[in-house]
Amino acid sequence: MSRTVLQLSTWQVTKKNGGFTLAEVLIAVVILSVGLLGLSAMTIAMTKSLAFGNKLTTATALAQKKLEEIKNASYTNVTSVNYPLEDYNTIAGYPPFSRSVTITTDSPMANTKTVTVTTAWKRDTAGPPYNVTLKTIIKK
Question: How confident is the model at residue 115, as a pLDDT?
Fold first, then answer.
């Protein structure tokens, strides 16, 4: 009788260190998500700040334009009657803005006029409007 010997080979399982575990991937995704949420909040804040800066610049330019117009007028024509309130939607090309002129005679001294131009625009939320005020003194 002959015998046959069956030999089973053993397989060895080795751990490979080349990949990431599921936990590592999830932690990385959470950290990345928190960072991106922070960036999106900052982007929203920057957009609002840029819009405010744009309106502030426009309001300042509108006030400066009115002051230049008044400075170029003769001293006797610089009266409140000649420069009435320009309410919202009345300044051509600038509907969200209003502009008012206040003229004080003999201030700060005789034969001078203090001219104050205030340009305002409404907030996006409730509350008083924002405004820019420029002043100049005109002498006789």
Answer: 96
Beta bridge partners of 137: 114
Walking along the chain (140 residues) 10 residues at a time, the average pLDDT comes out as 60 65 92 91 92 95 96 93 94 94 94 96 88 95
Sequence length of the chain is 140
Amino acid at 124: D
Residue with the two structure tokens 């995704």: 29
- Give the pLDDT score at 123: 86
Element (H, E) at 117: strand 112-121
Q: Which residue has the tokens 């006029």?
A: 113
Q: Which of 101, 11, 17, 23 is nearest to 65 (CA)?
A: 101
> β-strand 112-121 against 130-139: which pairing, if any?
antiparallel
Give the integer Cα–Cα distance in Å for 79 and 42: 47
In the structure encoding, which two tokens stand for residue 107, read together?
Answer: 């201030």
- Please give the structure tokens belonging to residue 69: 């117009």
φ and ψ of 120, to 5 deg:
-125, 155
